[in-house]
Amino acid sequence: MADLRFDGRVVIVTGAGAGLGRAYALVFGERGASVVVNDLGGGRHGEGKSSKAADAVVEEIRSKGGKAVANYDSVVDGDKIVQTALDTFGRIDVIVNNAGILRDKSFARISNDDWDLIQDVHLKGTFKTTQAAWPHFRKQNYGRVIVTASNSGLYGNFGQANYSAAKMGVVGLNNTIAIEGRKNNIHCNVIVPTAASRLTEDILPPDVFAQLKPELIAPVVVWLCHESCGETGSIIEAAAGWAGKCHLVRSTGSLLRARIDEIVTPEAVRDSWDKVTDMSSAVRMESIGEASGALITAIEETREKSQSSADGKRVDMRPTVGCSALASVANSAVFLLDLAFFSNGVVSKFNYSPRDLILYALGVGSTVANPSDLRFLYEGHEDFSALPTFLVLQGVSTTMETGIVGNLFSGKDFNPAKVLHGEQYLEVLRPMKEEGVLEVHCKVVDMLDKGSGTVVLLDVDTFDESGEQIAHGQMSTFIVGMKGITNKRTSPHNVPTAEPPKRAPDASISQKTLLDQAALYRLSGDRNPIHIDPTMASFGGFKTPILHGLCSLGFSARHVLQQYAGNDPTKFKAIKVRFSKPVLPGETLQTDMWQEGKRIHFQTKVKETGSVVISGAYVDLTEVSAPPPKVCLNTTQNIKTKDIK
Ligand SMILES: CCCCCCC[C@@H](O)CC(=O)SCCNC(=O)CCNC(=O)[C@H](O)C(C)(C)COP(=O)(O)OP(=O)(O)OC[C@H]1O[C@@H](n2cnc3c(N)ncnc32)[C@H](O)[C@@H]1OP(=O)(O)O
């Protein structure tokens, strides 16, 4: 592999007159970078000023054929240092925030000056210098930043409270600027060096001191600043020719109350303290999303415990915490009557009325602009009926309400915001009435390891109030990032997807979803906040809230019914889909269809991006018929297309 070069790059190293900074500057200079050697030239306690140190390093770089310029400003005037880079070399690519001083005192003896000076040089100096370069980094879509922390910050060190605080301060600064810089290819990392320098020479024993050469750390910093290094947001410890990544970890912790409606008492905290502080199965937290996701899990576990404590009997479900990913459906249009647990599954009952059927139909894009949709939107219509896919709603509500999926991962790092709908199957066995009660039996039938996550398969059987089964379904949830739960990759229980024929689609219908589509759809029962709340969506790794998978399914099923069943819901038999990519509210769904007898294969794309979002999908009809007469079709290249605005 090629040597790591910095030709054409401009690098600022602060505090580069000696020790680590000098070592960094020399390696950058040797590898083709133009280097701004910043050093105020003061003593290690911040006293005095001199241009000597910086000048000597500039001379050293130049004597080896490199390019360098000196700067003698304090890092608190970081904008001046950046200006030197711009004035001399015309750009800035890398900032190594290395400058530092010490004012060691035991905590009780730290004066305001001791405190302020240390915070100024380490924390404010890093802020000022990096911030001055930031607009240039963003404009050129490239930047590399190193901030320098210390073991005194990470672990504490007697007599260095002011310095420890500043050093942890730069870690926090780095954590956030790494996130903010990501979209502009600005990488920020923390180096935690243990080097023989003027800061450490009388702190470390002489034999250890001799092994801690700055030259053994400089290559680590130089690699982190190279354009080919993808690392960002990390804390890297380096010393004596060794480097390692350092992480914050957290214990699995303990619930502090038995039920969601109980308060937490100090005694309960005392009694759980061993578990709270047990680090034997500590896990690392990669992001605020992960950390908060675990809190959501704690809330859900408490709710699940509350339910289990009902000892298998029916329990009264009430809406609970608003931000919960498993938010209650008790206020939803499809009203949850009650819920019970059986051996390996759960039963729930739902009351529904024409209002719920209409709300669902609107949620999946039925519109009065299409006259044949009126039967789904107006209870006074002579053929008023439910869209058959209404029967997918209750399985999701039951799963979320009972936590039967979350329960499977008790004690694991389960983040509900990372539970995606993977696949859905629904077979309608009998027509449903305009109103009534649905009893839904839901159970886990298998778990699969899919490499990037775990799939949980759930069977869902739906009965009407007379006890007749009206539907059988299967949903799969894909828990992104959950690994090592099972060795199984496939399951005999899984209803398979089916690939479409290898020819151009026979028909295609496009329909733009509303920006408020998820906000509307969720009123039918799936209150999962990843579909509405930007913060919760970010916990799942999404930039903005995503559309419910079942909402997209509803759109496509409608398109198939329109195209091949005259929009007659009684001709619907079954549907199977895989949700292969998320959809954003406001995007246009394009359902491409292929007829093979009574099976209509389909694939749904987002028209704006061309991404396939539903794959391996089909609708089985009892009978195929022509589209209703009032639907106007345009024929283009053998593809019949209708755009619903
Ligand atoms: C707790 C309460 C229950 C909650 C129920 C749901 C509540 C709802 O509110 C939630 C939602 O509606 S979420 C929105 C709808 N769903 C989505 O947007 C998911 C879209 N899909 C994806 O992003 C990826 O497919 C993704 C991320 C799922 C997988 O992508 P990759 O990691 O890139 O996987 P890939 O490399 O393509 O394949 C690896 C193996 O996984 C199988 N696989 C892929 N997608 C799958 C899917 N959607 N469902 C099931 N299996 C899937 C692949 O086949 C492959 O396995 P194998 O090698 O064995 O074939």
From TrEMBL:
It comes from Periplaneta americana. Residues 489-508 are annotated as: Disordered. Its main location: other. It holds the Pfam family MaoC_dehydratas. Residues 498-615 form the MaoC-like domain. It is found in: Peroxisome. PANTHER family: DEHYDROGENASES, SHORT CHAIN (PTHR45024), SCP2 DOMAIN-CONTAINING PROTEIN (PTHR45024:SF2). This is MaoC-like domain-containing protein. Gene3D superfamilies: Hotdog Thioesterase (3.10.129.10), NAD(P)-binding Rossmann-like Domain (3.40.50.720). Residues 350-481 form the Peroxisomal multifunctional enzyme type 2-like N-terminal domain. It comes from the Eukaryota. Belongs to the short-chain dehydrogenases/reductases (SDR) family. Keywords: Fatty acid metabolism, Lipid metabolism, Lyase, Oxidoreductase, Peroxisome.
